[in-house]
Design brief:
With 104 residues, the chain is of the alpha+beta class. The chain starts with a helix and ends in an 8-residue tail after the last strand. About 12% of the residues have low confidence. The chain is globular and about 30 Å long. The protein has a single domain, classed as Gamma-B Crystallin, domain 1 (Sandwich), CATH 2.60.20. Helix content is 15%, strand content 44%. The strands form two sheets. A four-stranded antiparallel beta sheet has the order 2-1-4-7, with no helix packed on it. 19% of the residues are buried. It comes from Gigaspora margarita. Keywords: Signal. This is 44555_t:CDS:1.
């Protein structure tokens, strides 16, 4: 019984850790071509991101850094969306906990 409880807690933790998504659009106000990312890593969608939606569960320790040509232009851990960001960007870096999210 104890082992079953531990396995269930581990599964619940893994679901929470990976329960995020970043949606990127090529036009303002969530229009145009879109791509969705649901795993940690560095991504270049092949277009300039002009609107986005970052969904991350409260306190799941997942964050996203937004980059434009290697320069940091934004960072969010809590959920956030913007249909008209102050800066366009062409790369995102998603990670957990204390991972360094570095623009390339």
């Amino acid at each position: 019984m104890f082992l079953k409880c531990i396995v269930m807690m581990l599964i619940a933790h893994l679901v929470l850790v990976s329960a995020f998504s970043f949606e990127a659009w090529s036009q303002n106000n969530f229009q145009g071509t879109s791509k969705t990312y649901t795993q940690r890593g560095t991504y270049k969608p092949g277009f300039t991101i002009k609107s986005y939606r970052w969904d991350s569960l409260f306190n799941d320790r997942c964050c996203v850094r937004m980059c434009n040509n290697g320069n940091d232009v934004g960072y969010w851990c809590q959920s956030h969306s913007n249909g008209l960001p102050s800066s366009d960007f062409n790369e995102i870096v998603i990670g957990y906990n204390n991972e360094q999210l570095v623009c390339t």
